[in-house]
Amino acid sequence: MTLTACGAVRESRVNPLNWFSGSRSTPVQQKTAEETNPLIPQTTRGGLFSSARDAAREYLGTPIDQVSGLVIERVPGGGIIRVTGISEVLGIYDVRLTPADDNEEVDEDGVLTYRLEGVRPARVVRGGSERQRTVTAARRLTDNQLAEARVIRVEGRLNAQTTSRR
Prior knowledge:
Largest sheet: 6 strands, mixed
Radius of gyration: 19 Å
Structural class: mainly beta
Helix content: 10-25%
Number of strands: 11
Distance between the termini: 20 Å
């Protein structure tokens, strides 16, 4: 407590209150589709009833068009990533921050990457104000996950927001 009151420590990298403050927008590189054979299944089956169980858990979200805000809020034992995005259509629901890779680990450069995704309604309605199309999602991270990450990146369809330790 006394160290955070000290002016030199308050503005240094040692102070956890300075971690992940301020974010900036960067463009997203469009990925090309990989050549795959649609006749070969990408997952293995675990049993007779596992495919029905997996189908019920499958998330059908698509990336939100634009990520407009990224904030890391400190909480006891970790932090909460809170992301705001703007969709091009009205009615997006079940908005989530999904890991860019399957195991939710920090890559070799110290970057922890998520995608802001939401499920589109069956009947797509375009238009509406920006405020009506704004969505928010959050995800809790532990202190261990935050300690490994130097940069947290959240990608949308058109851009990405990043925040890093000072």
